[in-house]
Amino acid sequence: MEKNRTYKILIADDEYWTREKLRHMIQWEKYNMEFLEPAVDGEDVLEKMQENVPDILITDINMPFLNGVDLLTIIHEKYPDVITFVISGYDDFEFVRGTFMAGATNYLKKPVTKVELVNAVVRALGLIGEREHER
């Protein structure tokens, strides 16, 4: 990973309290991470990404207008360098399988703990570092 680079995080969840919990769970700026204004659904993610492409997208699966699996498919086609993972209340195998088939690197079940979130973000940053090293 590049030193002194700020990595951008975008959260997508239709539940206000989930978005706020994730916003405050980690001191993002302490780790050279910018927490972008969260998206409320999949369509909002696509609009926000036209202006500011994150390094990491953390999304819910069950959202109005555009579900997480369809969103991940679009993101990985349009923005292949964005690392994505899912936080969801669903533990149904088909949901989990669908997210990985759509390119997610991790799947966390709600309610997410700080340790789980940190581990998932560290893994995502590791993947970014590997990609940067390969270039």
Distance between the termini: 11 Å
Strand order of the largest sheet: 2-1-3-4-5
Structural class: alpha/beta
Percent range for helical residues? 40-55%
Q: Sketch the major β-sheet.
A: 5 strands, parallel
* Proportion of residues in extended strands: 15-25%
Rg, Å, rounded: 14 Å
Describe it for me?
Strands 2-1-3-4-5 form a five-stranded parallel β-sheet, with helices on both faces. 28% of the residues are buried. The protein has helices spanning 16-25, 42-51, 68-78, 93-101, 114-134; strands spanning 7-12, 33-35, 56-59, 83-88, 107-109. β1, α1 (16-25) and β2 (33-35) form a beta-alpha-beta unit. The N and C termini lie close together (11 Å). The model has no long low-confidence stretch (mean pLDDT 91). It is globular. The longest helix is centred in the C-terminal third of the chain and has 21 residues, at 114-134. It is α/β, with parallel strands linked by helices and 135 residues long.
What's the short version?
The chain has 135 residues and is α/β, with parallel strands linked by helices.
Give short descriptive properties of this protein:
single chain; 135 residues; alpha/beta; 5-stranded parallel sheet; 5 helices; 5 strands; globular
